[in-house]
Design a protein that fits this description.
Layout (H helix, E strand, L loop, with lengths): L2 H10 L1 H20 L5 E11 L5 H21 L3 H11 L5 H5 L2 E5 L5 E8 L2 H22 L10 E7 L12 H26 L6 H8 L3 E6 L10 H4 L4 H13 L9 E6 L6 H14 L4 E5 L7 H5 L7 H5 L5 H4 L1 E2 L5 E4 L8 H5 L2 H13 L2 E5 L8 H8 L2 E7 L5 H13 L4 E9 L7 H5 L6 H5 L38 H10 L1
Parallel strand pairs: 5-12, 6-10, 6-11, 7-9, 7-10, 11-12
Antiparallel strand pairs: 1-3, 1-4, 2-3, 8-9
Helix pairs in contact: 2-7, 4-6, 8-18, 10-11
């Protein structure tokens, strides 16, 4: 993964990361505020020997006290030391309970014992520490064996009095808040990484390129009104989504297909936008002056005729079985150099018809008469029609819907084309978000927030023409349709330019 991938993951999951970080911080804040403050006070005792005047005797006494120091540390929490303290201060507790709040330490090679007491009351903590130090100083000489003169060889002297603490030692508010903040952040990053690893959807161009090993030739911007105006290049030619199809048209012209110009447009599964992509691409090519043949080769669930508002009862199936001639059933559409061949009646053997020798000859003939031939085919995974038909054309164009098809489905559809020896010319990412971490356009600055708004004008939708049949349409088209000039390299027609100037 590259740095951009990590940034995309953070942008995509920033709400979860921030939420969990705040939860961790809030939890530790509540925990800290509900804890009882504990104060600590310490008293220090010096352990020494009382006998010895020479240097050797002093050294021997020092070694003796260092050897016994750990024993004295252990005595601090015993009842023999704590009982007198409880009685002296009249504390309502037991030696065992008091021992839980007392600690004693001695540094290495040192004869100093530090006694620390923790208590919610700072004054009481200091009193307990001093009392325990006094009690230990009295108990130890009694336990040690007496010397020849009847005195104890060990003497404990208090060298540091415990003082009431000015601030509590617990809870440590800054430390607790830092721990909560870091714990929440780590948890948020972990959840983000887990979501990313479990997400099996194809969402970016890079993921699709890795799976298909084919180039990306287009990305179609998502439009919430796509169902209301599926033919966006015809209905609203100045919209960002229409511009996406013009970019696809440009990229398609740079594909090296060995001199051929027929393509099968398909997808992995249904509802990825293959039919609308095919039709809009055909319109964009025709607006650029190309002579385009659009064939509805989906002989299972044809939709091209419905989208274009033409009669689809007679079409491709009638041509393949010899019931009708191509000139009688191929209809001009939209006053452009675009000719549409509907699917015709749904046959009982779609795969056989599409893979027949007559279909191959038919496509070859169309390639001689048209600049580009586009075939709208069924999805690859449910049926084999598209794979069979792709073998007869110059290549297949895969439509991949962002966030809909899974990686396994895209890999399976790619393998279906490779199995029959068909070429995958490239793929088109459809329904690409215009904003957010998965946005293609925001990465390049061309989306709704980029150049798209700069050229966007509120132009009225083009009128829908009534359904036409072969009997009512000539090859030259309707003479009463509005005049449409060919689009220039920027993709703007003269009519759209005039309308934009009037709106200003």
């Amino acid at each position: 993964m590259e740095l951009s991938d990590y940034i995309r993951i953070l942008r995509k999951n920033w709400i979860i990361i921030v939420a969990l970080t705040l939860i961790g911080l809030s939890a530790t804040t509540v925990f800290t505020l509900t804890r009882t403050p504990i104060y600590e006070s310490s008293s220090t005792i010096f352990v020494s020997t009382q006998a010895g005047g020479t240097a050797a005797e002093l050294q021997q006494g020092s070694s003796f006290t260092q050897a016994r120091i750990n024993t004295y540390v252990g005595l601090v929490r015993t009842p023999i030391v704590l009982d007198p303290v409880i009685e002296q201060l009249d504390v309502s507790t037991t030696p065992a309970a008091l021992a839980g709040r007392v600690s004693a330490t001695a540094a290495l090679n040192s004869t100093l014992i530090t006694i620390t007491v923790s208590d919610p009351d700072a004054t009481r903590a200091a009193s307990l520490a001093n009392a325990i130090a006094s009690s230990l100083s009295s108990v130890v000489p009694q336990l040690e064996p007496e010397s020849n003169d009847g005195s104890s060889p060990v003497r404990l002297s208090r060298v540091s009095e415990a003082q009431p603490a000015l601030s509590p030692s617990s809870p440590n508010t800054p430390l607790n808040l830092a721990i909560g903040l870091i714990a929440g952040l780590v948890l948020g990053l972990g959840v983000a990484a887990l979501r990313t690893s479990l997400d099996n959807k194809v969402r970016t161009l890079r993921e699709a390129e890795t799976i298909t090993k084919a180039p990306a030739i287009g990305a179609i911007a998502y439009d919430v009104k796509a169902r209301e105006r599926p033919l966006i290049v015809h209905a609203d030619p100045l919209s960002p989504r229409a511009e996406s199809f013009r970019a696809l048209r440009t990229n398609l012209q740079f594909l090296d297909m060995g001199g051929r110009s027929s393509f099968v447009v398909t997808s992995s599964i249904a509802s990825e936008g293959k039919s609308t992509t095919t039709i809009n691409l055909a319109i964009a090519l025709a607006d650029a002056g190309k002579r385009v043949a659009l064939i509805d080769a989906d002989l299972r669930k044809p939709t091209v005729a419905d989208y274009l508002g033409i009669e689809g009862g007679v079409g491709l199936t009638d041509v393949l079985i010899g019931r009708a001639a191509v000139d009688d059933v191929m209809l001009p559409w939209g006053g452009r150099s675009l000719f549409v061949l509907p699917s015709g009646k749904i046959p009982p053997n779609p795969s056989e018809l599409l893979g027949s020798h007559k279909m191959g000859s038919f496509l070859s003939a169309l390639e001689e008469d048209f600049d580009v031939v586009l075939c709208d085919a069924p999805p690859l995974l449910p049926v084999t029609d598209a794979a069979i038909l792709a073998r007869l054309t110059s290549g297949a164009i895969m439509v991949v819907s962002a966030g809909r098809a899974t990686k396994h489905q895209l890999a399976g559809s790619t393998e279906a084309l490779n199995t029959v020896g068909a070429k995958l010319a490239g793929f088109v990412m459809s329904m690409v978000p215009t904003r957010g971490p998965d946005s293609y356009y925001s990465a390049y600055g061309y989306g709704y927030g980029g150049y798209g708004n700069g050229y966007r004008k509120d132009t009225p939708a083009r009128k829908k023409w009534p359904r036409r049949t072969a009997a009512t349409s000539g090859i030259a088209g309707r003479p009463d349709e509005p005049e449409r000039a060919l689009e220039d390299a920027g993709g703007f027609s003269r009519r759209a330019t005039r309308e934009a100037q009037r709106s200003e």
